[in-house]
Design a protein that fits this description.
homodimer; mainly alpha; 3-stranded mixed β-sheet
């Protein structure tokens, strides 16, 4: 007896959700690894994660799933949600199938080797320790691009893994904008009166920093019944379901700037995860749209809101109450200005909103050339330092604070970096739209009322899951494609107020 | 080409260790569930745990494993370790195979239903809410006993799941000893001058309790590079590998007795897990021998050591230094005596070393009768209250502090309770032997030197994993079978010093 569409769809959901169970279990193990795991637990954890990854992979590449997707694609009586889930799952399946099991195994092995080489190279502060492994990795990624296939540029095939549909043709103008429009702004800032942020480096006790960050996260609407915040060396957000979202942070008692905006940033990611539709657990419509859209959510909260003067109109008196001694001589405006201090620096993750994108642009140019074969790994440090001199005016004193600073390439994540810039640009464009859609938004923010903004983000972004690509989302929300001029305008407005440019 | 024994053994290990990876992953999820998970995460966590359990079950019941075990059992060139692993895995496999998949599914479903009914019944403080579910559970367990098969008593088949080889024939004399020999001791204690433990209920701040417990665990030899302690509602120990062992505890600031001995107890479990051979990860020789032996490790540390006067000779001055105000008027001896106060009470988990075994004996008698069919679930509360009156001289005021207090039966764990008493009895017998083998043990303990005892436990128990059954271990260590008179003597010695009986 042929099965009904509903029966088939149920089987499809069951397989997808079992794979999600295993992947979310991996996420729990990964979270514990970064937060609480004792040091000697690392080896066992590594093999446990690897086994779970194998199990999930087996489920998601099974013949049974393939047949179900094939059959369901022919069924006209699927509802709209079902159609979208099946369409997206099939695209994923077809893409995965292009890689042979032997290639996947080789890539997994090389990733592990390459990551260890990176760790070792950082310890020795010597890129040459990393170079041979990275060369092999680049060769594999070039091979992967060929296996995936592409129309114009091999980089397109890889970047698509992180941002569906993104291509060099889209990215080049974005980064050209950065190269052309940001340097004049930076020059003006350099020439202006500098901002004082020395009070960030007074002593801010850990416990009070922690408490204030919880206050802010609660005000943002983060649901602590469906999530929590813990410490880790590197802040991150992970999710085991929309009902269980974990944020992590770190605290430096002698640098207040280290924690707070990072908490707000992760909170933005967390709100997205909490806002995904729970009834689509494990299905495409229950997952985030893309890395770029994810980053737009963290950046809109961290930068557009959390580094805005209106935000601090409400929150600064509360902060001062927590740190009366440390902030007695600091006004809300001075605090706001300090949080937006622009200064070219070596490390991407510590960069301000403006120079950050030079860091990304440099990585984008380099990895594009590596993948097209016009740059050799051995010439990478020289290229890196040349670009840093050119765009940031500084030269890394060593590999660790230069070409070895990011983990991404050791993971084989070529095409990932641009999503950081896309995120900021989407954030600026969405934020401009939010101000149109919610006319008194700034007034609300200055009263600490953030609920309508969160509702807007949920309505426009969170609830859709992966239904729309980032491009489609952007057009639906703002009526036009991604347009870097929103970011440029946002930056100009902000720094006009701060540096008088 | 036929495979070599080594190749086959390697395949066997690979399967077993993959299953262990999945089961340890479940343990991580379970640990997080009890320590950090936000409340709304419960549903997703439930389904994730259920999927992982299914994955592990599939691996451990695969035809491939069965064939490997069959073939390896015929190979004469396996080394001693290999032979023992294969023998034990085959026993497990054969036992599991006796249950049909349909039965396992039914049991799993009923367990979940029964647990929820128990929660509900406790909320309503009404056994009748639990009774129908429990009746079904008892029927299933009786069926399970028939499927497993047994020689003498159906209870033997079930108890074997927790303590290999244990039978009613072994347990009856143990509990007869409790029924006959403990009441006269209890009567003497009741007639003696009572011990004062009121100072336990002074205010002991959480942080200092925590710090002291870490000091004690470190002195015991618990490796905090390979484990940690966290808070949970009910203290427990879990392990993700010998290199990652998690203890949990709870703190009551107004009852010092609530935390410390529980920490030492869990620490004893933890030391066993840390002492299992790491190179036998996922294999029988890398697992604990039985629940009874596990409990012997926690009880030897908690009671024989941690409630001994010699222990406090060393640790009491340190405790006093942490709580100078609270303990200024309390001597080491008074503290030691208070930690051993005997008083019949309603709740098993809060009982002293002596009356504890009445609680277990009562449960044993009841579940034996349920399984053999001589007691009906509807008559359970009456039976319970009658036995409590008879042996402890008290009657539970309600079901919650009576027949509904333990979770075990809702889980279908019939045959589990006796392992608590076996643990204490093994502990007393091992402890007597340790004092023979380490002549100056008490002197060492009174100097805070616990390393030689740990080394002895590792040598005699931990390093063997499941190689020996608890009975075999007991004979190897002490030269004789389990003999309850060791426990009786231990108890008499202890209370002679405290109550002068």
């Amino acid at each position: 007896m042929p099965e009904t569409t509903q029966q088939l769809y149920f089987s499809y959901c069951d397989i997808m959700q079992k794979a999600a169970d295993v992947n979310y279990a991996s996420a729990v193990l990964g979270w514990d690894q970064e937060t609480y795991m004792p040091p000697k637990g690392a080896d066992a954890r590594g093999r446990q994660l690897s086994t779970l990854a194998g199990q999930a992979h087996e489920i998601l590449t099974s013949d049974k799933l393939e047949q179900l997707l094939k059959e369901l694609s022919t069924r006209g009586d699927l509802n709209d949600i079902g159609k979208n889930n099946v369409r997206l799952s099939r695209e994923d399946f077809e893409k995965n199938k292009k890689l042979t099991p032997a290639f996947v195994e080789e890539l997994t092995k090389q990733t592990s080797e390459c990551f260890n080489a990176w760790i070792e190279a950082r310890k020795k502060n010597d890129f040459s320790v990393f170079a041979p492994s990275l060369s092999k990795m680049v060769a594999l990624k070039r091979k992967q691009a060929e296996m995936y296939g592409y129309k114009v540029h091999p980089y397109d095939a890889l970047a698509d893994d992180y941002e569906k549909g993104i291509t060099v043709a889209v990215l080049d103008p974005v980064f050209a904008g950065i190269r052309e429009q940001l340097p004049p702004i930076l020059d003006k800032i350099k020439a202006a009166v500098q901002v004082d942020d020395t009070f960030f480096y007074r002593h801010f006790p850990k416990g009070q920093q922690w408490e204030f960050s919880l206050d802010v996260l609660k005000s943002m609407g983060f649901d602590f019944e469906a999530g929590r915040q813990d410490y880790s060396e590197h802040p991150f957000t992970t999710s085991f379901a929309p009902s269980d979202v974990r944020l992590t942070t770190r605290v430096d008692e002698n640098n207040y700037a280290s924690m707070l905006w990072s908490c707000i940033h992760e909170g933005g990611h967390g709100l997205y995860e909490q806002g995904l539709p729970e009834d689509q657990y494990g299905l495409p419509l229950g997952s985030a749209a893309s890395l770029g859209i994810h980053e737009s959510q963290s950046r809109i909260w961290e930068n557009c809101i959390g580094r805005g003067l209106d935000f601090w109109k409400f929150f600064y008196p509360k902060l001062q109450a927590r740190f009366p001694e440390q902030l007695t001589d600091v006004t809300a405006e001075a605090f706001f200005k300090a949080s937006n201090k622009v200064e070219p620096s070596l490390i991407r993750t510590e960069a301000d909103e403006l120079t950050y994108h030079f860091h990304v642009m440099i990585r984008y140019e380099i990895e594009k050339q590596l993948i097209e074969g016009s740059l050799d790994v051995k010439d990478l440090p020289a290229k890196w330092n040349e670009l840093y001199r050119q765009y940031l005016g500084i030269t890394p004193p060593d590999d660790k604070s230069g070409v070895l600073q990011d983990v991404h390439w050791s993971h084989g994540s070529f095409g990932y970096f641009p999503t950081y810039t896309l995120g900021s640009f989407y954030a600026a464009q969405f934020y401009a739209q939010a101000q149109k859609d919610i006319p008194n938004l700034l007034k609300q923010v200055s009263n600490g009322e953030l609920a309508e903004l969160l509702q807007w983000l949920w309505e426009k972004v969170h609830r859709h899951g992966r239904r729309f690509t980032s491009e489609e989302l952007c057009e639906r929300i703002t009526g036009q494609k991604l347009d870097p001029s929103f970011f440029i305008r946002y930056i100009q407005d902000k720094y006009m107020g701060i540096y008088g440019i």
